[in-house]
Amino acid sequence: MSIKLYNTMSRKTEEFKPIVDNRVSMYCCGPTVYNFAHIGNLRTYIFEDLLHRTLSHAGYDVKHVMNITDVGHLTGDGDDGEDKLNKRAKETGKSVWDIAEFYTKAFFTDESHLNIVRPGVVCKATDHIQDMINLIKTLEEKGHTYVSGGNVYFSIDTIDDYGKLAGLRLDNLREGARIEVDSNKKNPKDFVLWFTNSKFKDQAMVWPSPWGVGYPGWHIECSAMSSKYLGDHFDIHCGGIDAIPVHHTNEIAQSEAATGKKPWVNYWCHGEFLLNDKGKMSKSSGEFLTLSVLESKGYNALDYRYFCLSGHYRSQLKFSFEALDHAKSARESLVKRVAELKKSEPSELGEKALSYKEQFFGAMENDLMAPQALAVMWSMLKDNSVSDGEKLSLILEMDMILGLRLDEVKAQSDEGDDIPAEVKALAQERADAKKAKNFARADEIRNTLKEMGYIVKDTPQGPVLERV
């Protein structure tokens, strides 16, 4: 097993060496459940899923932990904003608990549609308040905290390497930095560990603590939960690139101060932004799309997964519906090809097929080079010197990482045989109606087919019937 990963901390691609042989401990920052995840957020989770699948395929036993932030993540990601769930609750008239439950379920629905393997441990911040309090007490005992204005702060001046992940310089971190000045802070980059006093007085989620009734800061949550499930030193920490300068920087500061372990995490892996015409896709800008919107437009969630596979996780990826259409067409062509291959029986790989296998998994094990791996896959499928049985065996193994559910594709000979003649006739009538530009009749037939248990998808190769 020789896997290479780009480490944000060293700014180099390094050979992955686990702390414990054959085991991987991995923590990924999960969603803040105050709204639907947008497709830019989901790109990060697809990258983390590729990493999980690649490590597992290489033979590692992966312990994958992901948090659910249901308290403490403030607007603006700093210490001066309002709790995002609290704000959302006031806007909707619902309780923060109902908001968290609703959007947590929505997030996992999206992940399921995208065929993302659920982490072995999913931990909610609100279930780990005592763990956070205990960690703050440890930091307090070691002299890294102070209380000011009713809040408990971490003092970055008590450590000598703050900002190393992002390459920040301490002499540039004084007042006037791009953050709102908090007069309670000794240094503007100090950050809150526990709030008892905020300018927003109607915080719904609060707990007793040695410092008063309040709630945790965002950064302490991930440090407490990752340490609880993975220990004081673990292999990989993942997240989006936007977490580097503040959230992950502060996690490192408090975790290394509390544990004395340097490095606290051996490999930091970050996914790049998804862009739209106006730049980074984000909720704060209001310019974002959700997976359910794509699905309502007739796309399969796996079309979006394929689209994400077409770009390297460390490169910005520009989203457009034209690009998504290309991904949809490619995935549907792949499904059709696999259906044809399933008329054959899987067979052992010969020399040429083994070469393709080595190239594909070599690309994935070289910092998750998914675009290169896809190119190898298509070359293999077009190579007449590789038998259909070999192709089937290899494509199904490749899909253990790609996650496109190719194992669920039915053999072509079976795909249409079970479809009643009446359904096929209606599908043909709909196609004729569309050609005649009688779209009202075409839509009427589509609805009739749906009532009969079938959906019709328009593809570059023509309409395809699928069971609901």
From TrEMBL:
Main location: cytoplasm
Comment on bound cofactor: Binds 1 zinc ion per subunit.
Cofactor: Zn(2+)
Binding-site residues for ATP, renumbered to this chain: 283
Record bears the keyword ATP-binding: yes
One GO molecular-function entry: ATP binding
Top-level taxonomic group: Bacteria
Any Pfam family matching the protein: tRNA-synt_1e
Aminoacyl-tRNA synthetase recorded as keyword: yes
Keywords, comma-separated and alphabetical: Aminoacyl-tRNA synthetase, ATP-binding, Cytoplasm, Ligase, Metal-binding, Nucleotide-binding, Protein biosynthesis, Zinc
Residue ranges constituting the Cysteinyl-tRNA ligase anticodon binding domain according to the UniProt record: 417-461
EC category name: ligase
Motif interval(s): 'HIGH' region: 31-41
Designated name of the protein: Cysteine--tRNA ligase
Organism: Bullifex porci
GN (gene name): cysS
